[in-house]
Amino acid sequence: MTPFQSVAVIGAGAWGTALATVAARAGRNVTLWARNAEHAARIAATRDNPRLPRVPIAPEIVVTSDLALAARADMLLIATPAQHLRGAVNLLASHMAKPVPVVACAKGIEHGTHKFMTDVIAEAAPHALPAILSGPSFADDVARGLPTAVTLAAKDEALASNLVQSLGSATFRPYHTTDIRGVEIGGAAKNVLAIAVGIAVGRKLGASAQAALTTRGFAELTRLGRALGARGETLTGLSGLGDLILTCSSPQSRNFALGLALGRGEQPPAGKLAEGESTAPVLIELAASQNIEMPVSNAVASILSGRSTIDTAISALMTRPFKAEE
Ligand SMILES: NC(=O)C1=CN([C@@H]2O[C@H](COP(=O)(O)OP(=O)(O)OC[C@H]3O[C@@H](n4cnc5c(N)ncnc54)[C@H](OP(=O)(O)O)[C@@H]3O)[C@@H](O)[C@H]2O)C=CC1
Ligand SMILES: O=C(CO)COP(=O)(O)O
């Protein structure tokens, strides 16, 4: 029997709902927590979440807005947006009676502190056992049971492996690692880079430009990862290169779709969370503090803040001094 029989998912958005479905398929007793009591009641009654429409929510998943109930689970998955993760874990911490694994499922870096998600968990809930789950996985694909593989990292290898045993199934295949930082960097940076590639595609710059930007984006993600102690195999693995490839190649990605709209000169899709928008300014601050060059991410941050037009940013990227490829 798995050491973690019950799972609570905190945050009933698209990803939280998909993860609740994953845990139920793996045979766990699942609670899905929504912060809004009315939303929780509606999802519980209709077994449908407007944030992930047309994906039936299994009857055995308990949907609630009672945080004390959710906090009783053997493991907790936090699926809020990255900038709300601290607030959610702060609330949870007062209900956590014993040290339980708290798995960050958000992709980003906290504004102001430059902290990655597991560091935020460790600060907000000192008794938690922080972990992170990330990789190429669209909520809709995952919830529909399409084959998906991700990375799950915790400091302790046995814990990471037990978490994998608790969530894995024939359609959802997590790989474990102890390289928490590597997993966090890949998930945060790929969203910013996907906006860049979306812009290029929206501007009709061609398939060659799409491949070049994705590859040079990966080079800067790797540079930052190495500087922060990430392992090469994590950066080239599912949560790094894997998620970058997915997000930089599909309009199903909200980050890519945001870039696409910007590149076409259209209004970005309304009400869609694109984490890269929040991550871009903090990512380039973090890179600058480490003396790491991230020209593609810088271009995205400049465009989003209005400091640069798209055409100026593209021209600046293409006229940088020639250099050796690394
Ligand atoms: N969607 C996807 O395919 C994937 C998403 N992710 C990551 O998961 C994270 C969440 O994304 P996603 O679920 O798609 O986003 P959504 O916009 O679909 O949902 C976000 C959810 O978070 C809830 N929320 C916001 N603030 C808080 C808070 N303070 N406490 C509790 N809940 C809160 C919202 O509640 P309310 O409804 O009340 O506003 C909403 O239900 C992001 O970091 C994203 O990068 C990772 C992999 C795949
Ligand atoms: O993280 C994701 C896929 O791995 C989801 O990507 P978007 O947030 O860009 O939709």
UniProtKB/TrEMBL annotation:
Q: Under the cellular component aspect of Gene Ontology, which terms does the record hold?
A: cytosol
Q: For this entry, list what GO says about its biological process.
A: carbohydrate metabolic process; glycerol-3-phosphate biosynthetic process; glycerol-3-phosphate catabolic process; glycerophospholipid metabolic process; phospholipid biosynthetic process
EC number of this enzyme: 1.1.1.94
Q: Where does substrate bind?
A: 107, 254-255
Identify the metabolic or biological route this protein is part of. Answer: Membrane lipid metabolism; glycerophospholipid metabolism
Subcellular location per UniProt equals:
Cytoplasm
Q: Which domain of life is it from?
A: Bacteria
Task: Identify the main location.
Answer: cytoplasm
Q: Name one GO molecular function term.
A: glycerol-3-phosphate dehydrogenase (NADP+) activity
Give the UniProt family note: Belongs to the NAD-dependent glycerol-3-phosphate dehydrogenase family.
Q: Which NCBIfam families match?
A: PRK00094.1-2, PRK00094.1-4
What this chain does, per the entry, is described as: Catalyzes the reduction of the glycolytic intermediate dihydroxyacetone phosphate (DHAP) to sn-glycerol 3-phosphate (G3P), the key precursor for phospholipid synthesis.
Matches recorded under PANTHER family = GLYCEROL-3-PHOSPHATE DEHYDROGENASE (PTHR11728), GLYCEROL-3-PHOSPHATE DEHYDROGENASE [NAD(+)] 2, CHLOROPLASTIC (PTHR11728:SF1)
> What is this protein called in UniProt?
Glycerol-3-phosphate dehydrogenase [NAD(P)+]
